[in-house]
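Try it yourself: sequence plus adenosine-5'-tetraphosphate, in.
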Amino acid sequence: MSSKKIVFSGVQPTGNLHLGNYLGALKNFVSLQKEMNCIYCVVDLHAITIFQKPRQLEDNVLETTATFLASGLNPEKSIIFNQSSVSGHAELAWILNCVSRIGWLNRMTQFKDKAGSDKEKASVGLYIYPNLMAADILLYKATHVPVGADQKQHLELSRDIAQKFNKDFNCENFFPLPEPLIHKNISRVMSLRDGTKKMSKSEDSDYSRINLKDSADEIKKKIKKAKSDSEPIPSDIKSLQNKPEALNLLNIYSELTKNSIEKIISEMAGKEYSNLKTKLTEVLINEITPVGKEIQKLLKEKSYLKNILKKGTEKANIIAEENLKNIREKIGLI
Ligand code: AQP
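Structure, out:
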């Protein structure tokens, strides 16, 4: 890889990818591949921090790969592979488990959310997941990490771990401190049913999200049922402060049409939300259904998808092994 700017990011193969993954992460991945050296990973080791049915996991790894390609990632420009096929991720994660501090992990809010009320029953993997994420990034000495806002805290931890490693082993600048690349306009797409929660694959109600494989009819139904507001669209953004569902619909429309939210509000002020919903449905169908159709098409070509992952693994392994050799040396592992 020629330039020093290296992008790394991952997506968990835990089922249907949705509009939040698409706008918060995938679209960013695609635009970055034009300017930087990019490594995109299907993070299957992260997925198993919560039990996954084995056959389902295999299918999901291929489906996530298909979604990468259908969203516009190009395997000739970016390295695309699955995490478990490069064993360096697990090895570096162990090393970083010994660098990271329990107090740091205790502050991670995503663990608190995902483990729920009975934390004793959560897997140890779920607890130390942020250390594995740090290993994913630092294994390639990545400098930039495109993520949704929900991953900001984990990325800050990766920076802390990199900094401590550099200090402990007296090797200033050995690991670069990775920068988050968080979408300015729409860093967090919210649930269509509850605007205070992020749109998520694991939310029970399918009406809470737009899946990338949804048909035009499903998109239409979901937007029609989406919560908005009984009052008309206001003329200033401040009035939307306590109306998270309405703000979310306007944000999504703003992102998809590439118009600022202020411009949209000024054009739609005084109109009912049904008006916005009709327009939003149309732009969503135009943007999402071609991606869904391409995913379905690619899923019929499993050996092609496996081959993409195999080639990506070979490229990723070369970088990982070279970096690991230096990491082992720094620590004194012979
Ligand atoms: N709602 C969202 N808005 C913006 N970005 C989002 N991302 C996820 N949800 C949103 C970003 O998508 C990337 C891949 O996420 P992931 O699938 O690896 O994990 P996640 O964040 O845990 O996604 P989900 O949908 O919430 O999955 P479950 O329900 O399985 O936990 C990340 O960059 C993430 O920020």
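One thing you can check immediately is this: Residues 11-12, 14, 20-21, 24-25, 147-148, 150-151, 188-189, 198-202 surround adenosine-5'-tetraphosphate (CB under 6 Å).
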